Amino acid sequence: MHEMGIVLHLAKTLDELAEEQHITKIGSVTLQVGEVSGILTDLFEEAGDYFKKRHPILQESRLILETIPAVTYCTNCGGQYETVKYGKTCPYCKSGETYLLYGNECVIKEIEAETEDGEEREEEAVLEAGLYSRETGPFNG
Ligand SMILES: [Zn+2]
Ligand 1: distance of its center to the CA of 136 in Å? Predict the structure, then answer.
């Protein structure tokens, strides 16, 4: 299961972060999922529940999912358009010389955590872009 692999990676990353930053509890994790990343968010939540049981720091955490809209760029006319609506063909010039700009990624946007001394903190964009990115999305050729 594709989603399971991502959650496994996510849980492992959070474990490492927890150790490094002395985090005792993770409140929420905001994850941005690209519209054409091929990730099914329903399955994602199920996989998340599975890992919650195995990772104590995640037990009370909430997984917040945000969608990144997919945008495609046309190299022929320089236009940008909605990938989901038009696919690989540019709606302005009908060219097929296009590539996906956004929407194929899965990124941790924000982590809300509590440290050993009871201090609440926010780890923003700790992991930067590209936590997990599929090589080939449905609109990526
Ligand atoms: Zn075009």
Answer: 22
- Expressed in angstroms and rounded, the spacing between residue 83 Cα and the centre of ligand 1 is 13
Instruction: Assess if residue 9 is contained within a domain.
Output: yes
The domain that contains 59 carries what CATH number?
3.30.2320.50
**What's the gap in Å between 133 CA and the centre of ligand 1?**
26
- State the pLDDT at residue 83: 96
Strands 105-115 and 98-102: unpaired
**Are 78 and 91 within 8 A, CB to CB?**
no
96 lies in some domain: no
Ligand 1 center–CA 73 separation, angstroms: 8
Count of the separate structural domains present in the chain: 1
| Ligand 1: centre distance to CA 37 (Å) | 23
- Could you tell me which residues come within 8 angstroms of residue 56 by beta carbon, excluding any fewer than 6 positions away? none
Does the pLDDT value for residue 112 go beyond 80? yes
Range of the domain at 19: 2-67+104-124
φ, ψ for residue 97, nearest 5 deg: -80, 70
Asked if residue 28 belongs to a domain, the reply is: yes
Ligand 1 centre to CA of 68 (Å) is: 22
Query: Which tens digit of pLDDT belongs to each residue from 41-86?
Result: 777 777 777 777 877 888 888 888 899 999 999 999 999 999 999 9
